[in-house]
Amino acid sequence: MAATLHGSCLCRGVRFALDSPPLFINLCHCSLCRKLSGSAFGSFLHADGLGFRWLEGQALVRSYESSPGNWRAFCTRCGSLMPVLEDEGRHAIVPAGSLDDDPGLRPLVHIHCASKAPWYALPEDGLPRFEAFPPPDFWPATPGAEG
């Protein structure tokens, strides 16, 4: 069994654990992720949501629908981004910056590069880059996903 990953918000009022092994991390350069993160891009770890659990402070977490069907969660005390469960809890999307532990993998891809911040130069890191969202066959298999 993989080691449990732990995460928290800035004020540590919200804490969570992920017992499922991480599948991948994506770096998203879309305008919504830039606004959400307050940075040049958002970084998100994806994993089987059945291994996700709140340890403390779930009542502090609120969600916001940033675009149709796309939910963002945050701590109401400090504003930190928090994980979101999709596909009826089968898919966890964890803001990578909220992790307290090393997930043991590095980013897989840059996405939505066509809308990257004009003041940011994409690094020469060898990762694939997509102008928009990659095709479905690009992604590693996600538990609970159909197809």
Automatic annotation (TrEMBL):
Keyword terms: Lyase, Metal-binding, Zinc
Gene3D superfamilies: glutathione-dependent formaldehyde- activating enzyme (gfa)
Record carries keyword Amino-acid biosynthesis: no
Domain named CENP-V/GFA: residues: 5-131
InterPro entries: CENP-V/GFA (IPR006913), Mss4-like_sf (IPR011057)
Organism domain of life: Bacteria
Database matches in Pfam families: GFA (PF04828)
Family the UniProt entry places it in: Belongs to the Gfa family.
Protein name: GFA family protein
Organism: Roseateles flavus
